[in-house]
Specification:
Blueprint: E1 7-10, E2 17-22, E3 29-35, E4 41-48, E5 51-55, E6 62-70, E7 73-81
Antiparallel strand pairs: 1-2, 2-5, 3-4, 3-6, 6-7
């Protein structure tokens, strides 16, 4: 299986906030890391919820990688900030 399949990021592309939904069978406790196109970490967050909002409104337009590290493994989603 792919841990990525348990995540939905919406809307994508976004103008600021994105709702992240997790549909897995493991704990919702996760470390989230957002990196820019150059690989620089721009946000780190720990969550313990199956649905939460990431606020990217202060970031410049571009492509970001959102990495989830949890009990089920590691997943990565790309998010386009307009």
């Amino acid at each position: 299986f792919s841990f990525d399949q348990f995540f939905k990021v919406d809307p994508n592309p976004t103008n600021g906030e994105v709702l992240v939904s997790y549909f897995g069978k493991w704990s919702a406790n996760m470390q989230i890391t957002v990196t820019d196109i150059a690989g620089k970490t721009v946000m780190t967050k720990t969550v313990n919820e199956y649905s939460y909002t990431l606020d990217l409104s202060s970031f410049p337009a571009g492509i970001y990688s959102v990495r989830f590290l949890g009990d089920g493994g590691v997943a990565t989603k790309k998010v386009v900030k307009q």
